[in-house]
Each structure stands twice: as C-alpha cells, then as structure tokens.
Specification:
This protein is α+β, with helices and mostly antiparallel strands. It has one domain (about 5-105): 2-Layer Sandwich (Beta Polymerase, domain 2), CATH 3.30.460. Helix content is about 45%, strand content about 20%. It has 4 helices and 4 strands; from the N terminus they run H-E-H-E-H-E-H-E. It has helices at about 5-25, 40, 60-75, 90-100, and strands at about 30-35, 50-55, 80-85, 100-105. It has a 4-stranded mixed sheet, with helices on both faces. Helix 3 (about 60-75) links the parallel strand 2 (about 50-55) and strand 3 (about 80-85). Helix 1 (about 5-25) runs antiparallel to helix 3. The termini are far apart.
Length: about 110
C-alpha cells in the first residue's frame, strides 16, 4: 500500500515539471518559471494539473504549437497549462507571484 502523498506519483510529477521546464527553456528566452496552483502550493492530488507561469514574450503560433506538442508527449494524461505573465491581468499576476513557487530563474 502506498503511503500518504503517493510517492510514485510525486516522482512522476517532478519528472513532468523538470521536462516541461526543459522544453520551455529550449524554445524561449525565459527570465522566470513559476509553478502555481495546487502543484505550486504542495496540495496537489492524483490527477491534479500542472500550471506554469512564464516570464517571457509569448512566442508566435508555430513555436507555441511545437512547445505544446512536446509538452503533451511528456505529460501524457496530465493537463499542463502555460500562461505568459506579460499577458495576464495584474490582479491574477499578483496571485501567481504571491502563491506560486519559482522553479527557474535566470
């Protein structure tokens, strides 16, 4: 029986986070990546999505499509959302910055 927190799931979650960061950094000049939502707060459960906020200029459609294709391959059945901090409302940005966890910073 798995212990509380599903250790094998936590390992898979960390793997997804690392691989998504690698994909984003491969295509974009990023200042900061923030993991927010339940994963950023540490309250995620089996099946929780992954929410990433990226401090960079939003790429053009062809690059964004390539990024999302690669992320979908890595994430499998997990939902992954990417937001660009420069494109969101100030109030939402404040929440992300306050409650999220910086996982990459240049």
């Amino acid at each position: 029986m798995a212990k509380k927190g599903f250790p094998e799931t936590q390992h898979r979650g960390k793997e997804i986070i690392n691989r998504v960061c690698h994909i984003l950094l491969k295509y974009l000049a990023i200042k900061k990546i923030i993991l927010f939502g339940s994963r950023g707060k540490g309250t995620a459960h089996l099946g929780s999505d992954f929410d990433f906020a990226v401090d960079t200029t939003k790429p053009g459609s062809p690059v964004e499509m390539k990024i999302m294709e690669e992320i979908e391959e890595v994430a499998g059945l997990h939902q992954v959302d990417i937001i660009y901090l420069r494109d969101v409302e100030k109030d939402f940005k404040k929440i992300v910055l306050k409650t999220g966890r910086v996982i990459y910073e240049r």
